[in-house]
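Lab meeting, action items carried over

1. Structure of the two-component assembly. Owner: GW. Status: complete.
Input record:
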Amino acid sequence: MLLPENPHLRQFLLFVFALIVPCFALWTVAADVLAMPVVGLADMIMQAWFPTVVEGLRFQGSDVVLLTRFGEMDGRPVAAELAEYQLAYRINPAILSYSLPFYATLHFATYKDSYLGSFVTGVLLLYPLILFGLLCLCMKDLMINLGSLFMEQPGVWLPPGSVIALLYQLSVLIVPTLAPIGVWAWQSRETELFSSLLNLEVPADDARSS
Amino acid sequence: MKRFVVVFGVVLVVLFTIEMLNPVQTHVVVPFTSILAKISALLIAPFDDSVIAYGKVLQFQDTGFAVSIEAGCNGVEATIVLIAAVVAFPASWAQRAAAIGLGFLAVQVMNIARIISLFYLGDWDLDIFRWVHLYLWPALIMLDVLVVFILYLRYLSQQHADPTHAAA
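Predicted assembly:
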């Protein structure tokens, strides 16, 4: 069965494909600045949560470095004072924050009465998820690289290793693409695009042509 | 709406957890990923005989450049999202099964396009490869899932508006 034409859907798809590359290009230029609030918060949380393990999160170029309080001697992690260098792990927050340009693409491709207010709201909804993903990324790196030094800290609550692994995978593979769609769908639920898709107001022409 | 969100979330997390289990990775995901690499090589071969595939690796014989198709690059996660959305939305099980089957094909067609495009992009420029691989293609694949689901919703709404099509 051929589906009747839907001008709202056609317009939406056209704008999505027109906007996706420019939105991602703009985000690439501003990615470091956009990641700063999340990196700053993650830095505070990681230091407060794991004070004996984490020294902090620092920007290094477009990457973020997770500094630990450990060094390495004879291939084994030891206290930083005993080692010649400090253990640090490179983290790329962009693998989480590309949800922002994806959301921007969907948002601005949808015909709405107003754009800016709901866009800011949408971005603010995505930021906590990026922060959560960054925390999962850091914990996964610490778990893999430090092993029991991280997982068996006295007096510190930690999720089990399997949960950290699962949350990391979800945060990296699913959330950055799914969360923008979720936020966009929720914000667009009363638009003509959604009404026509869910048959809330089927245009008379559409009904006849089927 | 609440029911959709709850069922979607539960199905998504359950399927994703199953996918992450070692036996599932070993016996399902890795062999499936190897098949994708072989299909990609088969599609490229008529146009470029310098490409070979072994396991989940595609390689240029002349330059030596190779890509390995890893978890997250095989479209399985995107398919899981589609399955969760289709299962969560009210419809008959026949309609759901058809949507999942066709959706899986749509995702994999797009995914093979992704693999082939990334393979050539990587041989040309690694920085552009990295950008497109890490950020742009994941969004495009999920967009593919969204379009499939939107078309499915349109189909269902059309059936709802004109039930005579149900028998067609």
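2. GW to write a short summary for the group page. Key points so far: Residues 16-50+94-204 of chain A form one domain. Residues 7-49 of chain A form the longest helix (43 residues).
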